[in-house]
Amino acid sequence: MSDKIPVLIDTDTASDDAVALVMALREPTFDVKAITIVGGNMPVAQGSINARYTVELCGADVPVYDGCDVPLIRPAYRAYFFHGPDGMGGMNYPAPQRAPADGHAVDKIIETIKANPGLLLVTLGPLTNIAVALMRAPEIAGLVGRHVVMGGAANCVGNITPAAEYNIWCDPEAARMVFRSGLPVEMVGWELCRGEANLTDDEMRYCKETINTPLSHFAIDCNAHALTSSRDWLNDPGLGLPDPVAMAVAIDPTIASRTSKHYVEVECDGTYTRGMTVVDQRGVTPYDTDNVAMWREVVAKGAPHITVCWELDNARWKALLYERLA
Ligand SMILES: [Ca+2]
Question: What are the two backbone dihedrals, phi and then psi, of residue 281, each rounded to the nearest 5 degrees?
Fold first, then answer.
């Protein structure tokens, strides 16, 4: 029997997801059982093409299952403006050879978790597929070993609105279900993936000219449009790679150099705060009578179980990225 960690990755595959997939597929301690596609940055059909192309580029043999295309109750909101017309920087990569695997992502999520207790779940898109799986089989929450979520913004620095990160904002009802489900969520928020976590011009050049492999070129090239968007729209000077940062934490939890557990709620109703991840950083919810009604459901489930990542070891995240692209 393999002593590798069974892994399931749920992704709305655009350019940074693709780099995260490369890292996972080339991670020697991982046994990636399945990749499931959710609608988000891209519609499922395009995300599926991008994921299958990436799997083939890695020479891997992992099934890709298509899943829910739109959020539970909200209209879809795609991110062509950020990732390019194909989600892959408009690089016109060839079509993948393989079709999506037979079966729906939600069925495969339930089956794969039940068949692999202790599985590592990594989600890189809106949480629609996971929420639907939980509605059908709530018991899967207790079977997952870790659930690393790229999503949220613990310090309320959003990328899609001032208050919210895209993946949570896109389908806040699904995110709330996941956060309340008992899944052992480790929240890798967007603000962690900015600033020093960005790849600088020199680091991107290092990937292409020094590492200089097909995968290192792919990682930078497919993110060309995201880099421009990052600079022009988010005012970040370098290339932000949120999904690969989350994958780095999935591979090596110590790359999240400061973490703590908290009650976290997802705002579904706010005029300005839809999709905000409200972190009870100071632990006031069980005591403040003004909060009791609002937080009752979360507090009733016991001690805080959402791990919030506050700081990243940027040197080690980048070193891990380089190793997997080599
Ligand atoms: Ca993503």
Answer: -65, -30
Parent domain of 181 = 5-325
* 255-306 per-position pLDDT tens digit: 999 999 999 999 999 999 999 999 999 888 877 667 778 888 888 888 999 9
**CB-based burial label for 69 (10 Å; 0-12, 13-18, 19+):** middle
CATH number, domain with residue 130 = 3.90.245.10
CA of 286 to the centre of ligand 1 (A): 34
Contacts of 299 (CB under 8 A, 6+ apart): 263, 285, 286, 292
**pTM reported for the whole predicted model:** 0.97
Classify strands 306-312 and 256-262 as parallel, antiparallel or unpaired: antiparallel
Q: How many domains does the chain have?
A: 1
Contact 26, 58 (CB under 8 A): yes
Which amino acid is residue 322, in one-letter code? Y
Q: Tell me the CA–centroid distance for residue 10 and ligand 1, in Å.
A: 9
Q: How many Å apart are CA 233 and CA 226, to the nearest integer?
A: 10
Q: How far is ligand 1, taken at its centre, from the CA of residue 283, in Å?
A: 30
